[in-house]
Write a structure and sequence with these properties.
This protein has 284 residues and is of the alpha/beta class. Helix content is 39%, strand content 21%. The chain has helices at 22-30, 47-53, 66-76, 95-104, 181-200, 215-227, 233-245, 252-278, and strands spanning 9-15, 35-40, 57-60, 83-88, 91-93, 116-125, 128-129, 138-145, 149-151, 160-162, 166-168, 173-177. It starts with 8 loop residues before the first strand and ends in a 6-residue tail after the last helix.
């Protein structure tokens, strides 16, 4: 039964072997009475059973990269509403964000001029909220009017963008990272390959340029400074900045694991793979 507080939002979730988290993701979407769509790229665990039980509409589409998959969903899904909200399979709408969305869509709804809203993301790493180290809040464009938003066609670090004015919400979507560390690091290894490919041969799909005012543009401005720093040393510098200067140490032992792996090991791995590509080992 559709709840009386149903909102005119279609929710799109990309999935692949996400049985650990997809139930909470879909439950948070269905609590809004949302039109929920799952785009799956070949799950072999219980992901699809959970999605069916949650009443989500399921479609199958092979995965190339996140940007291509998101844009395929935008172009092909039969969305029921004029607003769409995009989530990953380990993200969920917090109760506070749900209340903020109900307030936003009450009465006449969002202002007619606004094309989309940035949503802050709060990472939970193995149950530990990561509130320090510059990790909160980080805003992402996830809620936008149909026909006004796309995703960048980049191999890595792709973001949604919209045509028109934007707003910012204040309450979080939760990025609930529960993957075993072996799988989490394996995925980061693949993402490192994608980032190196993007660095060596940038795609033409990068729409958001470094700048100020827009959250992603500001992030790219800071990233351009990072990219000019010396290889390897910049990974150590980023870790010290986030863990020490930005007080990442306040997030406990799981916070330590997160910052070592995310802001040192992963960034160092990217640099190592980049160095390997620029200086291949001679035959013989």
């Amino acid at each position: 039964m559709t709840p009386p507080t149903a909102l005119p939002i279609s929710v799109v979730v990309l999935t692949f072997n996400a049985a650990e988290t997809i139930g909470a993701t879909l439950a948070s979407a269905r609590a809004l009475g949302a039109d929920v769509h799952v785009v799956d790229s070949g799950s072999t665990d219980a992901t699809l059973d959970i999605a069916r039980a949650a009443g989500a509409a399921i479609v199958h589409h092979p995965f190339d990269n996140y940007g291509a998959q998101r844009n395929w969903a935008i172009d092909n899904l039969p969305l029921a509403h004029s607003w769409q909200l995009h989530l990953d399979a380990d993200e969920r709408i917090s109760e506070e964000l749900a209340a903020e969305l109900r307030a936003l869509f009450a009465g006449d709804g969002p202002p007619a001029a606004v094309a989309g809203y940035y949503v802050p993301r709060l990472v939970h790493f193995h149950g530990q909220p990561i509130r320090h180290g510059g990790m909160w809040p980080i805003h992402h464009m996830r809620l936008f009017r149909s026909g006004r938003g796309r995703c960048e066609a980049r191999r890595y670090d792709q973001h949604f963008f919209v045509d028109g004015p934007t707003g910012r919400l204040t309450q979080p979507m939760i990025d609930d990272i529960r993957l075993p560390l072996g799988e989490w690091t394996a995925r980061h290894n693949r993402w490192a390959d994608a980032e190196v490919e993007e660095m060596l041969a940038p795609t033409r799909g990068g729409v958001i340029q470094p700048g100020a005012g827009d959250p992603v543009a500001e992030k790219r401005r800071l990233r351009s400074r990072y990219d000019r720093a010396p290889l390897f040393w910049r990974a150590l510098g980023l870790f010290l900045y986030r863990y020490v200067l930005k007080r990442g140490f306040l997030d406990g032992r799981w916070g330590l694991i997160f910052f070592v792996l995310q802001t040192f090991w992963f960034r160092f791995l990217v640099d190592a793979k980049l160095h390997e590509r620029r200086h291949p080992m001679a035959d013989g």
